[in-house]
Amino acid sequence: IDQTNNVLAVISGGSNQYVQGFNIAPQYPAGSKLLWTLGQTGGYQSTAVVANDRFSFSDYTTGLTKGLETPHLSYDNSNGDLLIGDIGCNRVQIYNIAYPSYTKTYVDTIQQFPAVYGVSLNHTNPLKLYIMGHEFDITTSGTWTYVRNFMAQINVDHYTQGYSDFGWVSTLSNGRTYATLDDNSTYPPNVSTEIVELTNSGIRYTGVYINESGLFFGNFLDEDFTIWQIYSASYLAGQTPILRKKTITSFDGSNNPV
After folding, report:
1. Whose C-alpha in 12, 122, 196, 252 is 20 to 30 A from the C-alpha of 101?
2. pTM exceeding 0.70
3. Under a CB-based contact definition with an 8 Å cutoff, are residues 180 and 221 in contact?
């Protein structure tokens, strides 16, 4: 509730992903009156491009929380600032909600990524860094800019909590950026690895795997996504491991690696 005790801010998740302010003053006995809405409908469901007023309050994948806890709101009644717990982006967004005009002004961001076990870099553009499904542009002077959030589009089969979900990332010869995501649907016996394309719209699952489904021990990729793979069936006691090499030779009509 804001400093006037007349406005109640409410988070709307699901397909909405925005915050709304309702007038709860006594002169509206028949019910609340919507005063304002802050946020872009759908959040990151159909786009990965980060914006100050694009929020991720809840996950879109049925049966998977991705560690998201209950989102939260808090008013600073000394100045009318609203602190928005944008948990899917690991940040708090601060907006000033002016009274009585209810003009919404972005103020600041507080962001952190606790309990992260690994990060990835784009092999052909190492100034792009990935923490889990979050993409940052970094500079040689140490400035980080949060640019894309793919987490809402990582489905239940491809999610690994706490780790950098994109194992290998590279911008290939066709100018498009691809990454690898482990596919847990084939486990047991083994996890498989799918190549996905990273676009401003989000993740495009190509259906192209760098190993046969269920056959995996270790994959190592060059910047052109040449794959060096230890064949798991040979990785047994008393047997000589077989190292296999696969090279991307072209792209099909859907820009999937061949």
Report:
1. 12
2. yes
3. yes
